[in-house]
Amino acid sequence: MTAKSAPGFPASRPRRLRRTPALRALVREDRLSVDDLIWPVFVCDGDNATQEIASMPGVIRRSVDLTVEAAAEAQAAGIRAICLFPYTDGTLKTDDCAEAWNPENLSNRATRAIKAAVPDIAIMTDVALDPYNAQGHDGILRDGVIVNDDSVAALVKMAMAQAEAGADILGPSDMMDGRIGAIRSALEDAGLCDVTIMSYAAKYASAFYGPFRDAVGASGALKGDKKTYQLDPLNADEGLRCVARDIAEGADMVMVKPGMPYLDLCAKVKDRFGVPTFAYQVSGEYAMIRAAAGNGWIDGEKAMMESLMAFRRAGCDGVLTYFAPEAARLIRAGWE
Ligand SMILES: NCC(=O)CCC(=O)O
């Protein structure tokens, strides 16, 4: 369209509109706003406790009390939503993953505490069994096989405990078949019809999740890989079919994950379905930018902001990013 209607040189000199900051601002096609950011936070046990995560410099785990403080600070910075990830002690990991639906588990305690103190920030929770699974998988493993339907039954119990704790957005990240429909009907049956679901709909089997597994204490536990449930990085059509299915089953929002290597999927999802579309800029993407910046190889702030703008350009309504507090600060300071 643009190419067909564009006049040739010298009638068209696109650099005319790039000459000054004012002209560039006038014709800028999109904006990155603090409203677009969801901040993933890691929660650990203890009081007034923080723990560093070696593979994610600048990211820490916080005890529930400090997570509440961080949520209040995030809200003051304009961030609308945080996403909770618990670091689960090894002694609580079992083959049946029962800690996942304990109403008093770390994630549910954090949700209640944040809701009580910072009621306006949206809380997203992670629905997947891996933090609670002695086998490190997102589903239940039997005789070396991830069993789909029993995993879905466990995920429903987990999702319901999170919804009852006050989560605003459930984020099923497990990639089992049929979990969105099962969670949606359980919510309806329980009268929790306003709880939203952001489905990790197109989640790829990716090497970029490595630092996250350190952050939630799952790296040691995982045996094998997740290729029987997460998507093959070469499959775009299959990703789109999963998105279509999850929307049909009751997802309010969908996510593509990881983010930067899968921007093509983000654009296709938004174009094809027109639903609220999010990307997860995952731990490995964060770690790469931080590591390169830490070595002086790239300008960390510029690379971070450019990476986040790319999600908007690709059509995403928002992005889950560990950079959220830093990006919020720069956006509010008028970053261009
Ligand atoms: N279910 C959440 C994740 O797997 C996050 C991955 C990452 O940040 O690497």
UniProtKB/TrEMBL annotation:
<dbReference type="InterPro" id="IPR030656">
    <property type="entry name" value="ALAD_AS"/>
</dbReference>
<dbReference type="GO" id="GO:0004655">
    <property type="term" value="F:porphobilinogen synthase activity"/>
</dbReference>
<feature type="active site" description="Schiff-base intermediate with substrate">
    <location>
        <position position="257"/>
    </location>
</feature>
<keyword id="KW-0350">Heme biosynthesis</keyword>
<comment type="pathway">
    <text>Porphyrin-containing compound metabolism; protoporphyrin-IX biosynthesis; coproporphyrinogen-III from 5-aminolevulinate: step 1/4.</text>
</comment>
<keyword id="KW-0627">Porphyrin biosynthesis</keyword>
<comment type="similarity">
    <text>Belongs to the ALAD family.</text>
</comment>
<dbReference type="GO" id="GO:0008270">
    <property type="term" value="F:zinc ion binding"/>
</dbReference>
<dbReference type="GO" id="GO:0005829">
    <property type="term" value="C:cytosol"/>
</dbReference>
<protein>
    <recommendedName>
        <fullName>Delta-aminolevulinic acid dehydratase</fullName>
        <ecNumber>4.2.1.24</ecNumber>
    </recommendedName>
</protein>
<dbReference type="GO" id="GO:0006782">
    <property type="term" value="P:protoporphyrinogen IX biosynthetic process"/>
</dbReference>
<comment type="subunit">
    <text>Homooctamer.</text>
</comment>
<keyword id="KW-0456">Lyase</keyword>
<dbReference type="Pfam" id="PF00490">
    <property type="entry name" value="ALAD"/>
</dbReference>
<dbReference type="InterPro" id="IPR013785">
    <property type="entry name" value="Aldolase_TIM"/>
</dbReference>
<feature type="active site" description="Schiff-base intermediate with substrate">
    <location>
        <position position="203"/>
    </location>
</feature>
<dbReference type="InterPro" id="IPR001731">
    <property type="entry name" value="ALAD"/>
</dbReference>
